[in-house]
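User: Fold this; C-alpha cells only.

Assistant: Input:
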Amino acid sequence: MGKIIGIDARKLENNKAGIGKYTFNLIREILEIDQHNTYILYTNNPVPIDFGKENCILKCLPVKARHRLTKKIKSPFWQNFNLRNKLIDDQVDIFFSPNFFKPLFYRGDAFLTIHDLTFITVPKAFSMIQRWYNRLFLFLSLQGRVEIFTVSNHSKQDILKHYGRIQENNVHITYCAVDTSMFKPLSKLDLDRNELVKKKYGLPDRYILFVGTIEPRKNLKSLLKSMSYLKKEGQSQLPLLICGSKGSGYQELIKQIEVLELKDQVKLTGYIADEDLPYLYANATLFVYPSLYEGFGIPPLEAMASGVPVITSNTSSIPEVVGEAAICIDPNNEKEMFEKISLLLNDTQLRDKLIKQGLERATFFRWSNSARRFLSVLNQHG
C-alpha cells in the first residue's frame, strides 16, 4: 500500500512566480512518474488546475476573513490550524511544503523546500518583522523528523552554514528548470499569436527585458542607473520593459524612474500571464537580471530557452545556473552593467555565441530529474 503525501499547494494559485512555478512543475512531474502513492493538494482558494491523475486529490480549505486584521493573519491561521487539522484527519504519512514552513505543533514527518535564506543573507530586503517571522517559523519547522530540499548547491551550503545542526545527507537538491516546450525562440512560436501579443502590450521592435517581482533584492535601481548611462551616452534609445508583480520595491522604483528622467524609456507591464510570457521573452533584444541574491533564478534560463542573450549577476546561485552561457557582472557596479549592455547591443558575434550557448544551457536542468530525486528520498524515508 502506498503512502499518503499531503502538500501545501497554495502557490498553485494564479500569478505564479518562482515558488509557484517550482510547486506546479515538480508536482506535475512527480505525478507523471509515481502512480503508487496518493497526493492530497491543500489550498485555501480554488485553483484552476487539474493534473488529471487518479492518485491526486485537490482539497480547498477556505478561510473567511472579513476584517483587515483577520486578512493579515489569514495565511498563518490557515497553515497552523486548518491545514494541520486536515493533515491529521486525512492520516497523511508525510507532509510536503514547497514553501519553507510546516504547521506549528505538527508532529508528523515533513519534507520542506527551503529555496533560499535571503532573509538572513540580504536582511535589508526585509522588514524587521519579516526577518523575525521567517527566522522563528523556519526554526520551528525544522524540529522533528524533517527532510530538506533546496534548489541549488549554493542554497544548500547556505543552509548548512546557518543551521549547523542539520546533517548534509538530509539536504537534497531539486533544481528548478525551464519548460522548453513553452519557452523557445521566436521562429518556433505561433507567429499569428505573436502579432496579437505584440499589439496587446504595445511591444516595440527592439527592447531590453527584465522579468521578476518588483522588490529590493531584484536590484532594479542599478539597472535603471545603467539605462540612464546609456541615455546620456546616446548609445541606445532601446526601451526597458519591466515585467512582474508589484512588490515592496514598486513605489521606490517609480520615484527613481522620475528622478532619472526615464519615463519615456521604461515601461511597466505588471504581471504577465503564462500564455503571453514566452512571446515577451522571444521578442526581446537583451535580457538583464541584476538580482542581488537568488536561491536559483528561473528567468535567466527562460530567456536562454527563448534565444535571447543574458546579462546577469555573479552572486549567489546565479553563476551555478547560467554557467558560461551568460555575461555575469557585479550587480552593484552600474558602470560595468552599462558597459556590458552596450557591448551586447553592438557585438553581433558575441550575441550569437551567447544565444547558442544559452539554448544548450536551458536544456541542462529538467523537472523530471528533480521529481526523481524527490521520489528517491520519499522511497528511502522509513
